[in-house]
Amino acid sequence: MLAFIDETGDHNLMRIDTEYPLFGLGALLIEENEYQKMDLAVQALKTKYFNTPDNFILHSSELKRPIHKRSDVRNKIMIDATVRSNFYSDFEQNIILPFNFKLIFCFIRKKQMVSIYKYPADPYYFSFENVLNRILKYGGIKNSIFAEKRGEVLNTELIAEYERLTKVGIHSYPGRKVKACTELTLVSKKENINGLQVIDLVLASITRAALGKKSKMVGNDCNPDLLRQKLACRVTIFPNK
């Protein structure tokens, strides 16, 4: 089984953006043969809208801000409301609906976490352990996990945290189970892994809906209700009160 994980929001608990007070981690679980077909479908979608699939990377923030200085210039077609609506419709019809995969989400309410706990856990690592626990429950005998690199220091910390969990275990599984059934690979965004791009778009949609922006999403995003049909389990929201 392949597992592609991505984050949304800032894991910093010292400065919390009132407009985006959530941190989220999501995973897309899919069998390798099914992913090969999804990969080709994503390539076809890129060809249709952006012409050059081999060096174009779908990134939710750039699709939403197509004229931002950090956005690939090919995203400018998304300014057109009709093109934008057609793109998300095609994404749903050709990527989300046809393939058999599972989604896992964990969200951290950062304000509540800081107010309740004197020494709150890092939202990324808290979410990572939660998602890893569910990958083991809903994944396969062996699960290859792919996460995007986040910088040298953060990469080193994540690898160290994963290695720690393979020794001490997680909520439902001993360390030997974590070690035997998972492997973690960090990849550069430039490697253009379509599985990471799909979970990026999906996670962004679910998060916007959670932030109460659902009315603005019609024609401008994936349908969160459609995505929820792919959930492997209930979404984790912490703290839950």
Describe the structure.
This protein has 241 residues and is of the alpha/beta class. The chain has one domain: Nucleotidyltransferase, domain 5, CATH 3.30.420. It has helices spanning 32-50, 60-64, 81-96, 110-116, 123-138, 152-168, 175-181, 194-210, 214-217, 224-228, and strands at residues 2-8, 22-30, 102-109, 143-148, 182-187, 236-238. Strands 5-4-1-2-3-6 form a 6-stranded mixed sheet. The chain is globular, with a radius of gyration of 18 Å. The two termini are 33 Å apart. The mean pLDDT is 91.
Describe the structure using short key phrases.
241 residues; alpha/beta; Nucleotidyltransferase, domain 5; 10 helices
In short:
The protein has helices at residues 32-50, 60-64, 81-96, 110-116, 123-138, 152-168, 175-181, 194-210, 214-217, 224-228, and strands at residues 2-8, 22-30, 102-109, 143-148, 182-187, 236-238. With 241 residues, the protein is an alpha/beta fold.
